[in-house]
Amino acid sequence: MPRRHDVAAIGGDGIGPEIIAEGKKVLDAAGERYGFGIRWKDLDIGAERYLMTGELLTEGDLATLGTCRAIYFGAIGDERVKPGILEKGILLALRFHFDQFVNLRPVKLLPGVWTPLAGKGPADVDFVVVRENTEDFYVGIGSRFRKEERKTLEVIRSLYRVKFGVDAESDAEEVAYQIGVITREGARRVIRFAFEQAIRRARAAPKVTSVDKANVLTEVYGLWRDVFSEVAAGFPGVSSEFSFVDAATMWFVKNPEAFDVVVTPNMFGDIITDLGAMIQGGLGLAPGGNINPEGTSMFEPIHGSAPKYRGLGVANPVATIWAGSMLLDHLGEGEAAAAVLDGIVRAIAAGVKTRDMGGQAGTSEVGDFIAAYLRGA
Ligand code: IPM
Ligand code: MN
Fold first, then answer.
1. Pocket flag, ligand 1, residue 78 (CB < 6 Å)
2. Neighbouring residues of 92: CB distance < 8 A, sequence distance ≥ 6
């Protein structure tokens, strides 16, 4: 009996369905080659359904997704829907609902890929960002008011609950505020994951860098740093350092080889991983995994839905296929995961590249090539 994995697939909006189709093709081929089968559960979540029915995520969606250890996610975002609705109502809602507290984003320049960093190659750009994925300014609590405000704000997680009673008054014309939350538990689990990653990567000199802004946001990132130091003390074989986020953006460009594992709160993680994507060749090559080691994890390209390329067959599926490799790794199919990444490198070497990479291949040619490579054709 071959091994079976239940995996949910959400194509979503824009180019999402096209790139997920290529990813599924590649993962199925990997399964044929390495002796497992994927039972796909396709879910129709995204802007189209929202516009038709007003539904973002239904109880039924969550129940189905909850039966799978992994979700393969394309992209959401549609010009007909106000910014924030789909992002918060679908993507962030899934990350929070399934308590996917790690957003793992490799920043790795593959051989044959152009980087805007002069004089740097694959040996120099090879680190991972462990982005905290459930806290910080992403918790989404805040408000706007004139004169005065009395309100209760809550963050409800499986790990804890935090409730704020706001009692504010002001003579400013209008006030907006948003609360960033870091908890000891939340910081500890993600920082620990980062140190475990450093051990798993097994570099000659393993290192974890905390990227934060503890010199200005002294409360939230002060707590973050305290927890970082405590966790670091438990990993004597891994060196550790702090870097302020503004300086870190400079180091990503100037000395990317200085990084092994970067761990960072949610919002800075969002920002620096777009920079990371560029130094690894562009958004078309940047995958991410939203991980709950004990629950349902979700793998996606870090780029968005790129609506202007929808249906043209030109989108680069590599970020999604690479996210598929991470998904396989998460399911314990390490050999197949490595082969998928190898297939990506082979496609690039063979010149099977989409336009954003200077090639002429269409979306499905890239998927076909990698699937054929995996089958051993
Ligand atoms: C990302 C995206 C999301 C984020 C948006 C779409 C909510 O930019 O995955 O990096 O900010 O996390
Ligand atoms: Mn982002």
1. no
2. 138, 140
